[in-house]
Design goal:
The complex is a heterodimer of chains A (about 120) and B (about 160). Chain A contains four helices and no strands. The chains are: A mainly alpha (about 120), B mainly alpha (about 160).
Chain lengths: ~120, ~160
């Protein structure tokens, strides 16, 4: 096996492992906000790992470069998506879990249904 | 000036996505980049001046490894909490304040916070950000700002402000 393929396989393996942990987090964590934590961090890292692995395997070919260009797109869009989901959920009145320590956002926003 | 920045950006993206250097492909990309840049340049780009400032690009290069390191730590942090049988979390939403002025800088700060250990941005109002923490350590505005925002702010101020 060629070295770049081996490296690519390892990186893809790490990526898949973190994607799996992200999914596990989605199942185990209590409320939508904590689930978004797992969803954004692990899944972004995992997906970037898979894309990087594809680049390592393919090298500077059209496929490899496209995978590499995909990484900044995932890094920029995933947090924005999480932010939109969390804000939407909060405005819509989705409760935080009972373990919650503090919620400055609700204090500042009152209970208005406004943007 | 702002249009030129967007034309350059669109053209570089075209070259990366197609990765073919025939005259035909490059011409097509150039024409499309030109049209996009002329139409949307004034909407997308805030100020053109900083884009040609090489010091900012240098600090952006410094920022990338710092960010990647924080992101890797974030992943092991979440992985630890998810795999721990008792789920060690104390979640909450805290308010922090940033010194950054430019919109672009605040957007990058918010995205960086989202991808780093235990925190993500729920909303931002002006210079105040509402951060959901999976493990709340301090609730005061000043301490929380110091803890969450400072490590990126120092670099982002050099890049964007």
């Amino acid at each position: 096996m060629v070295w770049n393929e081996l490296a690519g396989m390892i990186v893809i393996g790490i990526g898949v492992a973190f994607d799996f942990l992200g999914c596990l987090g989605l199942l185990r964590l209590p409320d939508v906000y904590n689930r978004l934590q797992a969803g954004t961090k692990c899944v972004t890292f995992g997906t970037c790992g898979i894309l990087l692995g594809v680049f390592l395997m393919q090298g500077f070919t059209p496929t490899g470069i496209k995978a590499l260009v995909g990484i900044p797109f995932v890094l920029l869009t995933s947090p924005v998506g999480a932010h939109a989901l969390a804000k939407g959920a909060h405005i819509f009145g989705v409760k935080l879990t009972d373990k919650t320590v503090v919620d400055h956002y609700a204090e500042d926003r009152g209970n208005k249904l406004t943007l | 000036m702002r249009k030129i920045v967007l034309i350059l950006f669109a053209f570089i993206l075209w070259v990366l996505l197609t990765w073919s250097f025939t005259l035909q492909s490059l011409t097509a990309g150039g024409v499309v980049a030109l049209i996009i840049g002329l139409l949307f340049g004034n909407f997308v780009i805030e100020k053109a001046g900083p884009v040609f400032d090489l010091r900012r690009w240098f600090w952006a290069l410094v920022y990338i490894p710092v960010f990647l390191w924080e992101m890797t730590k974030a992943n092991f942090d979440v992985a630890y909490r998810v795999l721990h049988p008792k789920l060690p979390i104390d979640p909450g939403i805290v308010k922090v304040k940033t010194k950054l002025q430019s919109e672009m800088g605040i957007v990058f700060l918010a995205n960086s916070i989202t991808l780093t250990p235990g925190t993500f941005t729920v909303d931002l109002k002006g210079q105040y950000l509402y951060i959901h923490c999976i493990k709340v350590r301090s609730t005061g505005l000043a301490e929380a700002s110091h803890e969450i925002v400072d490590r990126f702010e120092k670099l982002l101020i050099k890049i964007f402000d």
